[in-house]
Each structure stands twice: as structure tokens, then as C-alpha cells.
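The records we work with from here on pair a chain with its fold. Taken together, the C-alpha cells spell out the fold as the letters spell out the chain. To see the layout at work, look at the sequence and C-alpha cells printed below.
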Amino acid sequence: MRAILFPTDFSEIANNAFLYALHIAKSIDAKIYVLYTYLEPVLSATHGGQPELLGEVYQTIELNQFEIYKKKTQKLRDIAVEKGMQDVELLFLFEEGPVAPVVKNIVDREKIHLVVMGTHGESGFLSKLIGTNTVNVIKSIQNPVLAVPPHAVYQGIKRTVFTTLFRDKDKPALKEMLLMAKAVNAKIDCLHVLHNDRVADVLFQTEAWQKEFPDAEINYVLLDEVESIENTIANYILENNIDILGVVKRNRNFFDRLFNSSISNNLAFHSKVPILVFHEEK
């Protein structure tokens, strides 16, 4: 059975992302590990006898966090029942530590296939777009991460876009996205933006991919670059009501530029369209 990890802070933004986790889990017959993490404050002993007192303080903090956790988990169970997803298996985890390293440990331990997270941050432009914790998780693991922005509204997954440079390293990610698209009965647009490319070469690569994936229902889209690659992709997604964007994270390349762009329509795109981030094959 497949497994999805859903880290949450029990906010409304996280609960919105939980709907995506539920529907995907239902489609691919997966269980969901719901993870809540907390951080203990750093306290120091200033006089004799303090170490014993500190131990009691830490225990009290952990108990308080656990009480909050127990109350909030019932809300997620209620959401699952309300959406008719009560048969999706939910496993709740309560862990101490920073989100990214805890997620990495659970991903390895429980053989997680997909991480689903709500995106919101506290400071900085990048954080506001995708969220500090989400960025750190994406950087720390090799598994796909679905980043769900605050204004995304789950209405089914009907159309998806997979951006590619037609490299061999993109193929494993495309195969993963094809499996998910098939499970939810979604169409895939395989999108390439022409940027200093020889059109004949790109057409040759497109034909090669068509032959390699003969049974896949893929719509190959080649677009001329307008202003920038990121702007071209954002416009296409907004104009075509795309439900999920799939990208392959490449070091110092498209991924970082996409999330750091300040173009106004990209801001609208970031607030509404979930992004499925893959790591390129090493």
C-alpha cells in the first residue's frame, strides 16, 4: 500500500491542503501519515537546583502540545467523514523537532511516496510564496512534494502540466506524474518553452518522447518565450485552468527562478495552483 505524508500545523491553509491529500490517497489507494511537530524552547539553568525544574518545564510544554494535538486531530477526522473519505486510513504522528529533518526521517522510515503540504511563510518573498517549511522539506528529501497554496480550491484534478527540457533525467518524473494522472483520470500537457532552441531539434526530441511513451495520453505543447520562461508558463497555466503544475527541481535553474519571480501574474499563479515538485534523477 502506498503512503502519503501530510505535515500540518492544523491551520486553515493546512486543512485546505489536507483535502488534496485525501482525494489523492483515495485515488491511489494510499494511507496518510498526519505529522504534527513541535519545538521545545531552549532554557538554561541559572542557579542551583534548576536542572530538575527545567525537566518539569519541558514535560509540561510537551503535555500541553500533546493536548492541542489531540484536539486538532479530531477536526481532520471530521473533514474526512464530511467529504466521504472516512475509509482513507489516517495515522497520526506527534514528533519533536524541526519540520524538515523530522519529515526526512519519517519519509525514510515509513517508505513515503508523496509529501503533501500547505504553503505559507512568515517572512521574506520566497517564504510568502511557498513557505519556509515547504522549501526546507523540498531541499531535504528526494521524494515528490505537492505544495498546495492558500487559495487553491480542490475541484478535482482534470488537467496537469509537466514542464520539461526533454532530458533523460526528466523521464522518471514524467512516469510518476503519468501514474498519478491515470489514477485521478487527468490529462497531461507536456510543456516546453522555446528559449534559444533550434525548433528542429525540439521537434525531434518531441517525436522521440512520443515513441517512448506511445500509450500515454500526453499533449505536447511548445511555446515561444514571452518575457521569460517563468512568465510564459504562468500565463499558460492561468489561461488553461490547470489544476497541478509538475516541475523537476534543478539546482540553480528553473525551480529557483520560478519561485523567486515577482511578476504580478506569477503571484496569482502561486496563490492558486498546487505545484508538484520532483527531484531530477541522479
User: Anything to note?
Assistant: The first strand starts at residue 2 and ends at 7.
